[in-house]
Amino acid sequence: MAVCVAVITKENYPLYISNIPAANELKFHYTVHTSLDVVEEKLSAVGKTASDLRELYLGLLYPTEDYKVYGYVANTKVKFVIVIDSSNTSFRDNEIRSMFRKLHTAYTDVMCNPFYTPGDPIRSKTFDNVISSMMMQVC
Amino acid sequence: MTVYNLYVFDRHGTCLYYGEWNRKNTTGISLKGEFKLMYGMLFSLKSFIKKLSPTDVKEGFLSYQTSKYKLHYYETPTGIKIVMNTDIAVGNVRDVLQRAYSTIYVDFVVRNPLCSLDEPIQSELFKQKIDAFVRGLPFFSARVT
Amino acid sequence: MEREGVRMADEALFEFLHMEVISYIFKSLEKDDSDNGKCTAKLEGMGFRVGQGLVERFTRDIPRFKDELDIMKFVCKDFWAGIFKKQVDNLRTNHQGVYVLQDNRFRLLTQISAGKQYMEHAPKFLAFTCGLVRGALSNLGVNSIVTAEVSLLPACKFQVMMQRA
Amino acid sequence: MLRTESTKINLMRPLGQPALACAGYRWRENYYSHQRRGGYNIGVRIIEDFLARTNVGRCHDFRETADVISKNAFKLYLGVTPTVTNWSPAGDEFSLQLDSNPLAEFVELPDNHTGLSYSSLLCGVLRGALEMVQMAVDVRIVQDTLQGDLQTELRLRFLRRIEESMPAGEE
After folding, report:
1. Which residues make Cβ contacts (< 8 Å) with residue C53, sequence separation at least 6?
2. Which of C66, C67, C141 is nearest residue A10 as measured by Cβ atoms?
């Protein structure tokens, strides 16, 4: 499924980033980082145009040669980015949507852990498990 | 029909609340002394009744009646005791006392963090509610003959 | 019906816990004879963290907010109802970043008094909620200062002053 | 306007947090005793709320008590029904097993708090509530999902019946 999943704060620093293969870390960080500009752009259009961007799911941010980058921004401005391998063409929009829902729910649970300090990098086994379920089934 | 007075005791015998409506007599002793005697009497009555009963009692005693008045008694498993004296025409008021406990005592004493549970109740809101409750009872009548 | 029951239940639990937390904090700090300010600040801080978490959950299924007023309306309706089982009765603003939320029967005060009695105790029952609102707004990206004011229980006014960066 | 769908979970949230903050990140033992004492105070009041709302009468024996705790009290306040099990031969001790513990629903203990008995609040609540209905009971947590156990298990041991004392000043 996903090759990279990232959670970014409203101040644009990462709370969580996971990617496979791990060796490509730098590349993914770059990809995610670049996508944030597109996110900002899309968000700044909210309220200015009559488009339906009041939805939390932002859709495809941009495609590269190898990947498709999707975005989702919660009401609390926390950003979620999911990167899919371009070769994986069978993906439907609905599936991406439900992945984001899952991700958002998992993040909400993290926020509700009294031992978690908002803004800290996410270190949670439960969250890790959710993410890895989204990253598996690649091959 | 009418209501004379009402007592609420805690499990240790402290009188948490006392209110009177159409009570015309006095015992001639201080209220404090009266509370003590009342509780003592209830305590003895209750334990003796338990001893007399052929089977294990669940409800305990509910009321006693003289030719002039009737004393109604309700006790929760936590030992809160509500006592109401009425004239003798009043029937079984167990559900009334139970309602006084669940909708007034619990709501305005137990759920009021400023009320400690083992001291006489200071809350004006509680006093207003219980007064309105008693005055609203079908057998309450201020016009006593 | 079932769900209704469950909802009621948790409400009572929240109430009793809130009660106990307040009494715990005030008791534990009384010994150090420190001022009440410290206790209220602690309660406020707790509310802040809870507000942050709750708002994440409460806003998960609703469309993106248009503006600040939209956010405040959400706080008065969904957020308030989710926690206190009723909406704020009145929301006013000066359109310069000050909002006043009026609750005529504030849940955490309704059992305490209907009038002036216990007025001096009211602040400690409002501190957590002030924090709750500030925490929720902060997580929604709005920094604010939240204070509460009571002139007759159980009515209560929360004033939210936006802090512009 | 009410979002009933998620309210149950919503309100569990404010529970966990202050409970913890209540401990103020003190030492573990301290947390434990504070939670127990805090729980006790809650228990003392919540039992009245419970009786008022359920109209449950006095229990005849400890088995009935166990049943009421599980089927009525836990169900009412936490929305779960723990299994009553592992009775001692004398019938004075039993366990409440919870597959899921609503109090700890979102909790993950950090590495420096691994041994923390997060739910000890529950022990205090049960002890306080039962004491008000004249039962002195010892309650402890013997299994805890937060500690990696498969379920959470509370062990309740009946100590003695608290007899109603004669009012002061009476012979």
Report:
1. A111, A112, D13, D17
2. C141
**Averaged pLDDT for residues C27-39:** 70
SS3 call for C66:
coil
Q: pLDDT digits over C82-124, tens only? A: 899 999 999 999 999 999 999 999 999 999 999 999 999 999 9
Query: Which of 3.20.20.70, 3.30.1380.20, 3.40.50.300, 3.30.420.10 is the CATH number of D24-106+115-161?
Result: 3.30.1380.20
What distance in Å separates residue C108's CA from the closest CA in chain A? 23
Tokens of A53: 């961007």
pTM of the full structure: 0.88
The alpha helices in A76-139, defined as continuous H runs, are: 93-111, 125-135
Domains, chain A, ordered by start: 2-135 (3.30.450.70)
Neighbouring-strand partners of residue A17: A6
Locate the domains of chain B by residue range. 3-135
For chain D, say whether B82 makes contact (Cβ under 8 Å).
Answer: no
Q: If you count them, how many residues does chain D have?
A: 171
Reported as a single tens digit per residue, the pLDDT across D52-88 is 999 888 888 999 999 999 999 999 998 899 999 999 9
Put simply, the answer to whether C50 touches D17 (Cβ < 8 Å) is: yes
Report domain B3-135's class: alpha beta
Q: Does D13 touch chain A (CB under 8 A)?
A: yes
Half-sphere exposure of C85 (CA within 13 A, CB side): 15
For residue C121, what is the DSSP state? G
Domain boundaries, chain D: 24-106+115-161
Architecture of domain C44-162: 2-Layer Sandwich (3.30)
Chain C contact present for B138, CB below 8 A: no
